[in-house]
User: Fold this.
Amino acid sequence: MNPFIITGEYISSEYFCDRERETSTIESNVVNGRNTVLISSRRMGKTGLISHFLSQPGINARYKSFLIDLYSTNSLQEMVMMLSREIIRKSKTTGERVLESFVDVVKSLRPGVKMDPVTGQLVFDLSLGEISHPLESIEEIFEYLEASPQPCIVAIDEFQQIADYPEKNTLALLRTYVQRCRNTSFIFAGSKRRMMEKLFNSPSEPFYQSCVPLYLEAIDKDEYFSFAEKHFHNAGRSLTEGCFDELYKTFDGHTWYVQRILNEMYASNEAVLTPVQYHEALDYVIKLGEKAFEEQFRTYSNSQKQLLIAIAKEGKADAITSMAFVRRHALKSPSTVQSSARQLYDEEVITREDNSYYISNRLFSMWIRENYCAIV
Ligand SMILES: Nc1ncnc2c1ncn2[C@@H]1O[C@H](COP(=O)(O)OP(=O)(O)OP(=O)(O)O)[C@@H](O)[C@H]1O
Ligand SMILES: [Mg+2]
Assistant:
């Protein structure tokens, strides 16, 4: 098995690098009754960290934990659907007769309990249309968790999605319900940094200062090197420090990209991994993405393309609406840059950190540089 997992699935601590400090921070938050808000750019490892934390033996044994990902949801009904299914699914694995006790408290979801015509067993088969009062359902679900003999942890991934739900007042009511919980701890994670910060740090927002923030940065280089080297060593192979240094530097240690290249180098079966093998693996991975990058790039307007090229050239671009930036890259005008940037940002093609922008997909950025920037 290739030990460098790139699917996002958490296997075990054996294949998970470091994050010891972050894991104990979350643990301390949970034990001390504090809710956590976990923020990072995409693919840095939020979901992995949550799964890693929840699977710690001390946590697993003591708490009932539930993890839902709101990324694909557009309404509170969908959130209710996910949360209730996760609770029932998880509790079933512990052999409890959960369905009856669940709808005893979560009365609004009773229509979801049906008789399977073949087996004659009760099943939970809720349709979105049957969730007529989603906020009430959420309140009841939290009541159900509060009554559980074991303390609970609810982790809500891509939490910022809630801000886009059409229902008004959702966040304010949710905050009230969360605040009432004594037996349940919450972890809210999200990758849209600006939105997450607005939700949790802005005084006008209901979740203002209600959680302890945890910003997930890149894994420490030395820790990552020992982890990677150990896995090559276990297979009777060696990863040179020079090779890893180049890899880490190219991607600023951004987890998924480092994992992706390590995975490719591992697959190569070379006995000794040097910078040569690193460059081969990188070229190969960019080549694999080529068709998709071409397709994606083709969909943008001329001004969007020009802006993407300018950002790719600089890697991290500051003050993109300044005259200096516009002139440096022969762009049309600051206002054109602004409107292109807004669209690209909304579609998550570019990411903003402090005052600088970069292309979210680092491999896409490299592909643009290779194809549209100066040849050196
Ligand atoms: N500490 C780690 N050690 C090894 N691999 C990791 C670690 N953290 C994350 N990964 C891997 O890196 C990739 C990205 O991680 P993950 O999906 O957790 O990121 P994320 O921040 O939740 O991303 P997104 O914002 O896209 O949801 C996954 O393939 C995951 O398996
Ligand atoms: Mg995630």
